[in-house]
Design brief:
Strand 5 and strand 6 form a beta hairpin. By secondary structure, the protein is mainly beta. The strands form two sheets. A four-stranded antiparallel sheet has the order 1-3-6-5, with no helix packed on it. Strands 2-8-7-4 form a four-stranded mixed sheet, with no helix packed on it. It is built from one helix and eight strands; from the N terminus they run E-E-E-E-E-E-E-E-H. The protein starts with 5 loop residues before the first strand and ends with a helix. The relative contact order is 0.15. Bound molecules: calcium ion (2 copies). The site of one calcium ion has 10 residues, from loops.
Length: 163
């Protein structure tokens, strides 16, 4: 009687550093027992700050800060959690997961190549110009050569006209 359990993926890898940690119980839980005291996320040194909420049988722990990349975290659900009938977890339950490694643009930063030139925006000096990765002498969106000098003249006229 009164037994309930937790569904989770143990030893998950490549976990998103910005995703909340979701704990699925086998039945609806007393939301007052789903809190930072009973649900802890440890980064190997200390418990991280965050808030725990509960909707029916799903508990969600949302870290205050993004998680670190390439880090193994241990989730512990203490037996202070209770279902709606006051039954508590038979024993503490814990498991670990590991976050993704940092990408070329840094930890948790999505790699986007807006102009499709094969250079990600964070390293592309001209993120909207598929022909250039740095402004060069003429700037993004303008060819450095090929206009035979005429381009410079036209650009200069535009400059005077618009400004
Ligand atoms: Ca690019
Ligand atoms: Ca570019």
């Amino acid at each position: 009687m009164g037994q309930f359990w937790i569904s989770t993926t143990k030893n998950a890898v490549d976990v998103d550093v910005n995703a909340p940690i979701i704990i699925i119980f086998s039945e609806d839980m007393d939301p007052t027992t789903i809190n930072q005291t009973n649900i802890r996320i440890n980064d190997g040194i200390q418990d991280i700050d965050g808030s725990a909420t509960c909707q029916d049988a799903n508990a969600t722990f949302t870290p205050t800060m993004s998680l670190e990349c390439s880090t193994t975290y241990t989730v512990s659900v203490l037996n202070g959690v209770e279902d709606l009938f006051g039954n508590s977890l038979s024993e503490n339950y814990s498991w670990s997961f590991t976050t993704i490694t940092a990408g070329v643009c840094g930890c948790g930063i999505e790699v986007i190549d807006s102009d499709g030139d094969g250079v990600e925006d964070c390293n592309d000096g001209c993120p909207d110009d598929p022909n250039k990765v740095e402004p060069g002498a003429k700037g993004c969106g303008k060819s450095e050569d090929g206009d035979g000098g005429g381009g410079c003249f036209i650009d200069a006229l535009k400059f005077i006209f618009f400004f």
